[in-house]
């Protein structure tokens, strides 16, 4: 299964490292990544593959939610199909 991870918040050192480490520890493969800084705000979208994950989608979502709170960022994960449906008119 593929999913989309989005991250938004004030730029600070270590955001990509922290998110990548969480995904790597769960054996989630990052297939594509796009990130930029917009007037001091960090934005990132990742396409990830969960098919070999050691954790369930729910567990990964819970870890990212906790990380979101700790880093004062918005971190969301959605199934690829839901993301695509929401962004097609």
TrEMBL record:
<protein>
    <recommendedName>
        <fullName>UPF0237 protein CLCOL_14600</fullName>
    </recommendedName>
</protein>
<dbReference type="InterPro" id="IPR045865">
    <property type="entry name" value="ACT-like_dom_sf"/>
</dbReference>
<dbReference type="InterPro" id="IPR022986">
    <property type="entry name" value="UPF0237_ACT"/>
</dbReference>
<feature type="domain" description="ACT">
    <location>
        <begin position="4"/>
        <end position="78"/>
    </location>
</feature>
<dbReference type="InterPro" id="IPR050990">
    <property type="entry name" value="UPF0237/GcvR_regulator"/>
</dbReference>
<dbReference type="InterPro" id="IPR002912">
    <property type="entry name" value="ACT_dom"/>
</dbReference>
<dbReference type="Pfam" id="PF13740">
    <property type="entry name" value="ACT_6"/>
</dbReference>
<comment type="similarity">
    <text>Belongs to the UPF0237 family.</text>
</comment>
């Amino acid at each position: 299964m593929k999913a989309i991870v989005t991250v938004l918040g004030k730029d600070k050192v270590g955001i990509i490292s922290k998110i990548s480490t969480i995904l790597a520890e769960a054996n989630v493969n990052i297939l594509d990544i796009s990130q930029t800084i917009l007037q001091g705000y960090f934005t990132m979208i990742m396409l990830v593959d969960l098919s070999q994950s050691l954790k369930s989608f729910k567990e990964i979502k819970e870890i990212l939610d906790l990380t979101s709170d700790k880093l004062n960022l918005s971190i969301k994960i959605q199934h690829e199909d839901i993301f695509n449906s929401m962004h097609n008119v």
